[in-house]
Design a protein that fits this description.
two-stranded antiparallel ribbon, mainly alpha, globular
Amino acid sequence: MTLESIRANGRLQIALGLLFGICFGFLLQKGGVTDYNVIEGQLLLTDFTVVKVMLSAVIVGMIGFHILKHFGFVRSHAAGGTLGANVIGGLIFGVGFALLGYCPGTVAGAVGTGALDALGGMLGMVVGAGIFAEAYPKLRDTVLQKGPFPAVTVPEFLHLPTWTVIVLLEIAMIALLAGLGYIGL
């Protein structure tokens, strides 16, 4: 099966998305980051479980993605952005996180574990997405297009080969994880 045949098969894409989503939620739950107290501890800088889980995922994912890219199974495509879209998205995410104590991934995982507070947050996300979808046509041509910036990857920005950046970032992330472990966080 080729990458093009997978892209052409909408049902397969949905099935793969569902499968990977379930795996992601399972791993979030097993990592302990669907627990409200763990997230609160991270925000208070007393529990670094979230940082450890996410850094571990980035370490594995970064290498895995670039191996798949090397063999032609995936393609990267950096997208440009706008200051307006980032500010609006950041505000929506930040307000939701501050009110609920979960991010979108952890709230879904917490719902899966039966957390009723997370269920309310999940409903709020659905309602909020509907409101945003309704407002999007008006926002798209005004606020969301303010302050465009180009698509630049980290290796392009640093003017370094991709694998050099990957190795440097991997070393830095592993050192951070080791440092957190060394100081007992």
